[in-house]
């Protein structure tokens, strides 16, 4: 089993020929509204690969929340909403995808509607073992660094239960040191910056906090790895075409954690993950590859 803990958003995605400049309007070629967010996209990736997956997150109430719930159910993600019954609403991301290159620009409210979860406040929904029911040795918890008040508590409990803990290190956050220290593996993005560390020192700095496996993706370039003290690279396949890079990093993390949950080694799981992520950029959105029936 895989449990993903972190952010879900409502993504409003528009494909444009070019990004608008100041005081400029452009006409979108297409529009979609569905869920997004690192943990949610990772969970959907895992279910598409056939691994039962639970998403522990904050959705809240209202019409936007209902869209998110319906879309998650359509992807067979087992949703646990710790904000059920509260007044919060899901975060909203506005995404502009440039048609010719697949590059995206994102504006998001993140988890601002759930300040208590972000700062360690009390939960409005189920707590404790209810969130990790059935989790034990061989299972995996994937964190995305958001909602740290929730994520840290869940990570500590997952370690007590013998599950592996993996972190999607998208960017440096105030709770990063504590969160990394609870992890067995960390997969960083190229945007991750460790205070005071540069270049290869970033891997060393993260490794020194406790994980046995640290990797850093770099777009189409090979993934850098520090695995139990051994350095190596994992090459990323070249996509046949780049349609949309939205959520490609989330796909890496979801596919990596799903493979680990199936018993793969860290290295084999990463090799598998970059193949799935390459397939993802050849289709629209973070889940277009799965909807098209592409199973790398």
Automatic annotation (TrEMBL):
Cited PROSITE patterns: PFKB_KINASES_2
Species assigned in the record: Cellulosimicrobium protaetiae
Keywords (A to Z) from UniProt: Kinase, Transferase
Name of the molecule in the record: Carbohydrate kinase
Organism phylogeny: Bacteria, Bacillati, Actinomycetota, Actinomycetes, Micrococcales
Signal peptide per UniProt: none
PANTHER family per UniProt: KETOHEXOKINASE (PTHR42774:SF3), PHOSPHOTRANSFERASE SYSTEM TRANSPORT PROTEIN (PTHR42774)
Pfam family, one: PfkB
Entry's Gene Ontology molecular function annotations: kinase activity
Residue stretches making up the Carbohydrate kinase PfkB domain: 2-287
